[in-house]
């Protein structure tokens, strides 16, 4: 027998055989989950990770996205920037599709990944966090931060305070304190608040809290001494719980204490008991589990013992943020498949899907989320979508949050000018010629 000829024939046969005839796994849509289920930020990280995982499990139980299953790849970061970058490097080339998008779940990690992911041509969705000037897709084509930014949150909080004060002109002479995590995340709203202070005549009092945020006695003694009219908070994890308890200890009125959306979950207020009643925070999704999608998750996912957490925590604020991140991913992938006429989408194709995203109210209803979030339409010059923010309030007796306001628009005169300035500076520093892809 001529073994040389036989080997040549066998090699040719292998090359000629179609992929799926070899028994190789079908194409999967890879999406990493940079989780933090451990450490001082776990109270905030766990519900989000569970909501994201459960929604993707639901999709797979229903056949995937257009028949293609999703491959979730978790990686524990502990909300540590260095570890987060290591996680990204570990998962970015995961087979078969590579990571179709990365959700850093940390402003610090986002800042580090912007140049890396852009070079690797992997889109980033820093949903309601990260670098605000990434709104400008001509400078940041691979970064999306819809449905709202930290600068929008700060602007809306000032609008809400103005409304409660009897008009924006009544802000003159008032003092607004910012209690913030002493990191890139916590510092994000400072420029917006200072610009709005100059515009409306109020003073901004800056109170940084060092990682992880468990020591705040001095901060709240300063609040008691300086007597600000309102306190805003950019906190995360255990810092939120401590701040709310400390505010209650000095009897600061909860109806004048507003946290950003990452400072407004059940885990933040429950430790303070009844003292947290009336606490306010920003929101870009509705709270609670009273939506058809939640019932479907409980039936299909938890009914099959495939839930990522406990069924009775479905519908928590952080959980709902994980759900909407999953919805955005699904819709971006569907859009990419339609644009490129293939189900085997790549990260670059999914980037196009995010930039062409048009999530309507009708589609949200179809998914089972009526009046859950604002419709989102993305374009090259708008990677942040509607930029609308509502205010929610904690009811300690009923143990639930309620949306108590309209959906406010941002102050575009302030925020758009800051976005243009910051994105232009970034483009200059990095030799980027702004353009749409």
> How many individual helices?
15
The CATH architecture of the largest domain would be: 3-Layer(aba) Sandwich
β-strand amount: 5-15%
Q: State the assembly state of the protein chains.
A: single chain
Describe it.
The protein is 42% helix and 14% strand. It has helices at residues 3-16, 42-61, 81-91, 107-120, 150-165, 184-187, 190-200, 217-226, 238-249, 266-269, 292-302, 317-340, 347-355, 361-367, 412-429, and strands spanning 29-35, 70-76, 124-125, 143-144, 175-181, 203-209, 230-234, 257-259, 280-283, 358-359, 376-377, 388-395, 400-403, 408-409. The strands form four sheets. Strands 5, 6, 7, 8, 9, 12, 13 and 14 form an eight-stranded mixed β-sheet that branches. Strands 1-2 form a two-stranded parallel sheet. β1, α2 (42-61) and β2 (70-76) form a beta-alpha-beta unit. It is globular, with a radius of gyration of 23 Å. The relative contact order is 0.15.
What characteristics describe this protein?
alpha/beta, two-stranded parallel sheet, 437 residues, single chain, 2 domains, Rossmann fold
């Amino acid at each position: 027998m001529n073994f040389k000829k036989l080997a040549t024939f066998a090699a040719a046969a292998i090359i000629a055989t179609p992929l799926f005839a070899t028994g190789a796994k079908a194409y999967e849509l890879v999406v990493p989950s940079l989780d933090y289920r451990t450490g001082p930020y776990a109270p905030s990280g766990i519900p989000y990770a569970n909501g994201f995982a459960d929604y993707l499990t639901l999709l797979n139980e229903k056949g995937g996205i257009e028949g293609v299953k999703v491959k979730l790849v978790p990686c524990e970061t502990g909300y540590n920037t260095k570890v987060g970058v290591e996680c990204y490097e570990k998962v970015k080339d995961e087979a078969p599709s590579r990571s179709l998008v990365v959700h850093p779940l940390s402003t610090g990690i986002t800042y580090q990944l912007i140049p890396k992911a852009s070079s690797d041509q992997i889109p980033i969705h820093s949903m309601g966090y990260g670098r605000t000037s990434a709104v400008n897709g001509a400078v940041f084509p691979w970064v999306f931060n819809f449905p709202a930014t930290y600068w929008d949150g700060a602007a809306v909080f000032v609008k809400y305070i103005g409304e409660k004060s009897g008009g924006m002109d009544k802000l003159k002479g008032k003092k607004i304190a910012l209690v913030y995590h002493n990191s890139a995340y916590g510092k994000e709203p400072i420029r917006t608040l200072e610009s709005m202070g100059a515009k409306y005549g109020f003073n901004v009092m800056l109170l940084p809290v060092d990682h992880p945020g468990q020591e705040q006695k001095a901060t709240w003694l300063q609040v008691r001494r300086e007597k600000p009219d309102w306190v805003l908070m950019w906190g995360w994890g255990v810092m939120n719980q401590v701040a709310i308890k400390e505010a209650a200890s000095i009897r600061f009125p909860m109806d004048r204490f507003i946290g950003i959306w990452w400072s407004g979950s059940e885990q933040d207020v429950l430790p303070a008991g009844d003292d947290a009643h009336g606490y306010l925070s920003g929101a870009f999704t509705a709270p609670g589990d009273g939506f058809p999608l939640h019932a479907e998750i409980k039936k299909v996912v938890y009914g099959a013992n495939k839930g990522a957490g406990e069924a009775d925590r479905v519908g928590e604020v952080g959980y709902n943020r994980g759900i909407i991140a999953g919805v955005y991913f699904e819709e971006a992938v569907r859009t990419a498949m339609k644009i490129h006429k293939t189900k085997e989408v790549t990260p670059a194709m999914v980037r196009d899907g995010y930039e062409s995203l048009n999530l309507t109210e009708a589609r949200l209803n179809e998914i089972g989320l009526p009046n859950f979030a604002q419709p989102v339409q993305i374009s090259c010059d708008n990677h942040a979508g509607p930029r609308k923010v509502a205010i929610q309030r904690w009811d300690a007796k009923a143990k639930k949050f309620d949306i108590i306001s309209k959906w406010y628009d941002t102050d575009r005169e302030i925020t758009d000018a800051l976005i243009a300035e910051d994105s232009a500076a970034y483009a200059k520093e990095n030799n980027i010629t702004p353009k749409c892809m």
